[in-house]
Amino acid sequence: MDISQFFSKPGLFAFFFKSFAIVLSFIYLIYVLTVYRQTQVMLKTLIDQNEKIILLISAIQIALALILIFLSIFVL
Q1: Measured distance CA(12)–CA(6) in Å, rounded
Q2: Is the pTM for the entire model greater than 0.90?
Q3: What residue ranges do the domains of the chain occupy?
Q4: Other CB atoms within 10 Å distance of the CB of residue 4
Q5: DSSP 27-73
Q6: Residue 15 and residue 13: Cα distance in Å, rounded?
Q7: 52: exposed, middle or buried (Cβ count in 10 Å: 0-12, 13-18, 19+)
């Protein structure tokens, strides 16, 4: 069996692509949650007038990570 025939099956490629997308989406969510926690610690240490904007940007990243997970599970 030729290796090109193995990867030419659409179901197998779709399975690997979807599983790769799901795993990377969860890794990105873990990363975003870590950045959000670090942002909270940083804002406790430093006093900044724009702390609400910084927290908003971090919260938007969490929302985008959750949307990415939803898309990778249900749409792909």
Answers
A1: 8
A2: no
A3: 33-76
A4: 7
A5: HHHHHHHHHHHHHHHHHHHS--TTHHHHHHHHHHHHHHHHHHHHIII
A6: 5
A7: exposed
Q: Which position has the token pair 């910084």?
A: 54
* pLDDT tens over the chain, length 76 residues: 455 555 566 677 778 888 999 999 999 999 999 999 999 999 888 887 888 999 999 999 999 999 999 999 888 7
Question: What is d(CA 32, CA 9) in angstroms, rounded to the nearest whole number?
Answer: 35
> Look-up: residue for tokens 């490629």?
13
Measured CA to CA, the distance from residue 27 to residue 43 in angstroms comes to 24
